[in-house]
Design the sequence.
């Protein structure tokens, strides 16, 4: 059985950043396992720009952003294996993997970082009536076909869901000569970033129909059209509002699901709000020495935040390898006032870095609110937010000195309140 101090599961932006941060924190025995044929993860098919402004101070494409981290991994001499599928991770941190070159192998790790990313919600999870004709794709699959394989999935397109990938593909398909008829969104607000709504839809005159969904797909061999309808406040289609849209392609951008099959098989508790593990401020799960970062933990909107978070996990893993398990008292973070979850879910002030970043999403569009943080009953942070939406991640950064000044605090609360 092979042995490594740290095994990173996933060679996408989270895995690469975590491995580099761990190396820079003193860990030398590191192995990255990636199931694809190259490092970089989903960034390799994201050829649009907009990446790297926070991390590198430059606007990069996805492959350019990935290439910088791949170069850092190679410069540090960090070992990685491609075309390697991880089948299982035991609670004792024994990783079982399979590849064509090595066959079935077992790797004993002292620490593990989960960085498997996420997957798209397929048609089967949406309960849309109709046959199973050709021409139905998830937005990410269509993105790969266009940007990597050089294939155009269709000519007349309807997109269901206004997640960022769907919005970006509306623009991409238009630039390749397809006609995007409309984007339908079940919720009364978009699930994507405001900048993508403007740059990908409004700039190209593509309609966005909020509170609408697809209720029927026409066609047996190939999609010939879809029927959309308005929905009520519970998401139920309203009779009499149906509209038939002729098209040959339906793209689905209906949410991302963290790839947590391995986490679940390890017995990790998953947060129902994120479908990812619960972690502390070191991004460590309930199993000592097992960390999680990136979209496997909670779905991000910016890859720069993925890299920042993963770097914190890498430093946390290095600290675990150097000092062992964190046995200090963990204080849960209580979220209310429309905040759905926080990452991390608990904090140990004694183990904190120079500053603590708390990331969260709200459950609905909020106007003229303020985000406040309380240690016991003392307010230590308050900032006005003109608009908050579920499609955009929010964050609060707190210096460690605040926690030192309230060393006996027993509660941490984060909430929204009237501005």
Sequence:
């Amino acid at each position: 059985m092979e042995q490594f101090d740290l095994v990173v599961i996933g060679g996408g932006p989270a895995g690469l950043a975590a491995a580099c941060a761990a190396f820079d924190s003193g860990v030398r025995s590191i192995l990255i396992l990636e199931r694809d044929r190259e490092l970089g993860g989903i960034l390799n098919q994201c050829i649009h720009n907009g990446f790297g402004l926070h991390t590198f101070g430059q606007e990069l494409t996805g492959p350019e952003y990935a290439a910088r981290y791949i170069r850092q991994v190679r410069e540090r001499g960090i070992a990685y294996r491609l075309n390697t599928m991880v089948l299982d991770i035991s609670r004792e941190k024994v990783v079982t993997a399979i590849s064509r070159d090595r066959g079935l192998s077992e790797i004993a790790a002292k620490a593990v970082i989960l960085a498997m990313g996420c997957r798209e919600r397929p048609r089967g999870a949406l309960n849309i009536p109709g046959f199973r004709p050709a021409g139905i794709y998830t937005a990410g699959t269509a993105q790969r076909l266009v940007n990597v394989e050089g294939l155009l999935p269709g000519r007349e397109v309807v997109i269901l869901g206004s997640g960022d990938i769907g919005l970006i593909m509306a623009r991409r398909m238009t630039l390749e000569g397809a006609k995007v008829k409309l984007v339908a969104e079940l919720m009364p607000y978009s699930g994507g970033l405001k900048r993508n709504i403007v740059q990908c839809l409004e700039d190209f005159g593509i309609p966005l129909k909020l509170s609408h969904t697809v209720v029927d797909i026409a066609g047996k061999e190939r999609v010939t059209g879809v029927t959309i309808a308005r929905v009520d406040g519970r998401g139920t289609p309203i009779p009499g509002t149906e509209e038939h849209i002729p098209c040959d392609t339906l793209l689905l951008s209906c949410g991302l699901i963290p790839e947590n099959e391995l986490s679940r098989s390890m017995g990790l508790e998953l947060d129902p709000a994120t479908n990812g593990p619960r972690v502390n401020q070191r991004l460590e799960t309930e199993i000592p020495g097992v960390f999680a970062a990136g979209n496997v933990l909670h779905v991000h909107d910016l890859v720069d935040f993925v890299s920042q978070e993963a770097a914190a996990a890498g430093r946390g893993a290095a600290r675990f390898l150097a000092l062992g398990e964190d046995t200090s008292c963990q204080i849960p973070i209580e979220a209310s006032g429309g905040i759905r979850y926080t990452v991390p879910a608990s904090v140990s002030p004694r183990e904190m870095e120079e500053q603590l970043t708390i990331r969260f999403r709200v459950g609905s569009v909020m106007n003229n609110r303020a985000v406040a943080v309380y240690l016991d009953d003392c307010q230590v942070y308050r900032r006005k937010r003109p608009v908050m939406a579920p499609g955009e991640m929010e964050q609060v950064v707190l210096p460690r000195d605040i926690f030192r000044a309230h060393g006996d605090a027993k509660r941490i609360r984060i909430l929204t309140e009237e501005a």
Q: What stands out?
A: The first helix runs from residue 13 to 24. The radius of gyration is 22 Å. The first strand starts at residue 2 and ends at 9.
